[in-house]
Specification:
This protein is of the alpha+beta class and about 260 residues long. It folds into 2 domains: about 150 residues, S-adenosyl-l-methionine hydroxide adenosyltransferase, N-terminal (Rossmann fold), CATH 3.40.50; about 80 residues, Elongation Factor Tu (Ef-tu), domain 3 (Beta Barrel). The chain contains 5 helices and 15 strands. Helix 1 packs parallel to helix 4. The radius of gyration is 20 Å and the shape is elongated.
């Protein structure tokens, strides 16, 4: 039975805007100008520019920790102003608003989606026309504020069938299965899409280097030895004790970062 939806007072923001520019702050200003009682939480504004896969991981790794009724507003949008659609997705507990560019694929793999809508209108806060380069301010923020006041996604959209989500998690033996790096955290740990069930059953190759040492906590890690640990999100992470695995292997998120799973 579908549970009664909780209050929608919390708005969680995820963007690639960074903090050196006004973009994230402007979005918050728009939200609060419409609903001064909204609670705004920053998941992150430091997604690598245009990196939809990383944004999808950060959303997936965090959303279940939020209270029922949270509205997730995700603006990593390389196609802003173009033909891509903006979607509003309702689950039993949450509402997600994002470009229809794959950002929601990890959540869709996890959640039972009740309904999806293509957003075709949004509340206006002034007479200014909608910018073709800043939908975060002119579409996403006003929409989030209206939803936080109790309005429904349906009021601003039409029913929309999203394409089938692309495979996200590595599955051994599955056709087209790829192991990838999804995220590099501030410690230089490499977060992959390999599930915990493969712990101690396979090794990972990065370029010409093979990582074969498995640990259950950081204290077990030999110094100066890259290791595999299951991180807090239940996925393989390649780590270096008190060091940066990303620096050790020369990895950045601007690269395809396809890994080889061996053994």
């Amino acid at each position: 039975m579908r549970r009664k939806r909780a209050s929608r007072n919390v708005i969680a923001l995820l963007t690639d805007f960074g903090e050196n520019d006004h973009y994230a702050g402007t979005m918050k200003g728009v939200i609060l100008s419409i609903n001064s009682r909204a609670t705004i939480v920053d998941i992150s504004h430091h997604v690598s520019p245009y990196n939809v896969r990383q944004a999808g991981y950060l959303l997936w790794a965090s959303y279940r920790s939020f209270p029922d009724g949270t509205i997730f507003v995700c603006v990593v949008d390389p196609g802003v102003g173009g033909k891509r659609k903006i979607v509003g997705v309702e689950t039993d507990r949450f509402v997600f608003v994002a470009p229809d560019n794959g950002l929601l694929d990890m959540v869709r793999a996890q959640e039972d989606i009740h309904q999806s809508y293509e957003i075709v209108s949004a509340p206006r806060i002034d007479a200014r026309s909608i910018s073709t380069t800043f939908h975060g301010r002119d579409v996403f923020a006003p929409l989030a504020a209206a939803l936080s006041q109790g309005k429904s996604v349906k009021q601003f959209g039409r029913l929309y069938k999203m394409n089938k989500a692309a495979p996200i998690f590595y599955e051994r033996g599955k056709e087209n299965a790829e192991a990838r790096i999804l995220h590099i955290d501030r410690f230089g740990n490499l977060v992959t899409n390999i599930p915990a069930k493969y712990f101690d059953r396979c090794a990972v190759r990065i370029g010409k280097s093979k990582v074969t040492t498995f640990i259950r906590n950081y204290d077990e890690a030999p110094r100066n030895t890259p290791c595999i640990i299951v991180g807090s999100s239940g996925l393989f992470e390649i780590v270096l004790r008190e060091g940066s695995a990303a620096e050790r292997f020369g990895v950045s998120l601007q690269e395809p970062n396809v890994l080889a799973v061996v053994g």
